[in-house]
Design brief:
The structure holds two protein chains of two kinds. Chain A has five helices and nine strands, in the order E-E-E-H-E-E-E-E-E-H-H-E-H-H. By secondary structure, chain A is of the alpha+beta class. In chain A, strand 2 and strand 3 form a beta hairpin. Chain B is an alpha+beta fold. The relative contact order of chain B is 0.15. Chain B has a six-stranded mixed β-sheet, sandwiched between helices. The chains are: A alpha+beta, B alpha+beta. The interface between A and B is medium-sized, with 15 and 19 residues.
């Protein structure tokens, strides 16, 4: 059973967003995603100051067998990056909603956040994936 | 109609919560926990793999030895009864049809263990070229094959039988009886770079054998391991994988596996002439090991460049090196001969960026002798 915290928003690419307030959000990948990926061995994240548009790639995750693009859930400027993931990529597997966080962004368009799935919708979404799998 | 083949342990894997995935036309367990956890278990304690999808072909009767001598590159006349031998079947051009292990059960009775995806192809190949009186039989469906691998493998196996397994030397096999009266052929072989055994039982004994080994092995740290860890382990051990590092476009000499090619054995084998030419010319590409600083992982098909950004080769396998460290990844690939020397500095193009990679010796990982007398 995947963890799906109530206070976050989610995308179909299995990213989560936490509203930090002041137009800043924290972004990572979900418990479901880290489980699907198997062990994360490399996380490549953008430089601070990078502008990203919603839906575009903002980084890469390498697992043993495959590489996955990280998809921007919202548009904005990268204002912080989790440097611990350079030496400890396994944090993404161990604590996907905590120390495995990836970037913080200053939002260009705050209304994008509300249009993302809430916890209940995301739970239903991954349940539907598990049926097909 | 079943779209995918299942091994006899399919339900066992599902019950253990394994993540199953397609592997050729098989549904196989990729992992039960995580790949790296299973990888570490095999390096530090032991892991149990279901490899029943591999093919088993029995070759016996008059002409069996001649048939195998003609079809394989290694010297089967040097394989004693009770022994196992790694070898290749090659085409007339010397390129790889498959890599396989031959075990000699009797003077004219051999069991071939071949790659799962090549079983039918190999059988047809052998049948079309065998000595007329030689019998060939695909016995894959009657057999289950488990691999018990790791420094604790011998202890664990010893606890599952009254027969002596401590005396089984590497690349030999023995018929034993496991607890519960399970007849098993065990060979001291494997694909992980660790000590261990491949255990062949009748397919209806598969679940009992699996459960016995897991139960007896628990106190030694034995866990079930899937194909994910099987691949990371064999890559660290520098072992070639058919379909990646070996294929119909490359010869064993190009793969730097010439020690399994006996050009001077008494019976000329299919491909010998071309392989002799290749050896004499010594101008062909070579499969090398590469170590990258671990920013990204190289994958099959990625381009290898020299410092002048010219294409000099291609990656055939790549992945992490969990035992060697986090900031390292490893790969195998074919390069032009002039770039094959150890310590040559090359580049692998990953997401359009050339990443530094250095040619290194393989295997990347060497197992330690953990116990007294473990080096036999």
């Amino acid at each position: 059973m995947s963890m799906v915290p109530e206070d976050l928003r989610y995308t179909e690419e299995h990213e989560w967003i936490h509203d930090d307030g002041d137009n800043v959000v924290t972004v990572g990948i979900t418990d479901y995603a880290q489980n699907q990926l198997d062990d994360v061995v490399v996380v490549e994240l953008p430089a601070i100051g990078t502008q990203i548009n919603q839906g575009n790639a903002f980084g890469v995750v390498d697992s043993c067998k495959a590489s996955s693009e990280l998809c921007a859930p919202v548009s904005g400027e990268v204002i912080a990056v989790n440097a611990d993931l350079d030496t400890s990529p396994e944090l993404v597997n161990e604590a996907p909603y905590g120390n495995g966080w990836m970037i913080k962004m200053r939002l260009t368009d705050p209304s994008e956040v509300e249009k993302l799935m809430d916890a209940a919708a995301y739970e239903a979404f991954i349940a539907s994936l598990e049926e097909d799998g | 109609m079943k779209p995918f083949k299942h091994t006899p342990l399919y339900d066992t894997h599902r019950d253990l919560g394994a993540k199953m995935a397609k592997f050729g036309n098989w549904k196989m367990p990729i992992r039960y926990s995580t790949t790296l956890k299973e990888h570490r278990a095999v390096r530090e304690a032991a892991g149990l793999f279901d490899v029943s999808h591999m093919g088993e072909i029995m070759i016996e009767g008059a002409g069996a030895l001649i048939t195998l001598q003609h079809l394989t590159t290694n010297d089967v006349s040097r394989l004693a009864v009770g022994g196992a031998q790694y070898t290749f079947m090659t085409t007339r051009e010397g390129t790889c049809v498959d890599d396989l292990i031959i075990t000699r059960i009797d003077e004219e009775k051999f069991m071939l263990v071949v790659n799962a995806s090549n079983t039918e192809k190999d059988l047809r190949w052998i049948q079309s070229k065998r000595y007329p009186l030689t019998k060939t039989q695909d016995v894959s469906e009657q057999k289950a094959l488990l691999a018990l691998q790791g420094p604790e493998a011998r202890e664990i196996l010893a606890h599952c039988t009254r027969d002596n397994v401590m005396g089984i030397r590497p690349f030999t096999f023995k018929r034993i009886m496991l607890q519960g009266a399970i007849l098993a052929d065990v060979s001291r072989t494997g694909y992980t770079g660790e000590d261990g055994f491949e255990i062949m039982v009748a397919e209806h004994e598969a679940a009992r054998t699996w459960n016995l080994l897991l139960e007896k092995g628990r106190e030694y740290g034995l866990i079930p391991c899937g194909l994910g860890a099987r691949d990371t382990l064999r890559l660290e051990a520098g072992l070639a994988l058919y379909g990646n590092d070996l294929d119909r476009d490359h010869t064993p000499l190009e793969a730097q596996l010439g020690r399994f090619v006996k050009l001077d054995k008494q019976i000329a084998f299919l491909g010998k002439t071309r392989l002799r030419e290749q050896q004499d010319n010594a101008s062909h590409d070579l499969l090398v090991g590469l170590m990258l600083d671990g920013r990204r992982i190289a994958r099959k098909g990625f381009i290898i460049q020299n410092a002048a950004r010219e294409v000099v080769g291609e990656i055939t396998s790549g992945g992490p090196a969990p035992t060697l460290g986090k900031k390292i990844s490893i790969a195998l690939g074919y390069v032009s001969r002039e770039y094959s020397e150890i310590d040559t500095e090359l580049f692998v193009v990953i997401d359009k960026t050339p990443m530094p990679a250095r040619v290194v010796e393989t295997p990347f990982y060497h197992r330690q002798n953990r116990k007294k007398g473990a080096g036999s």
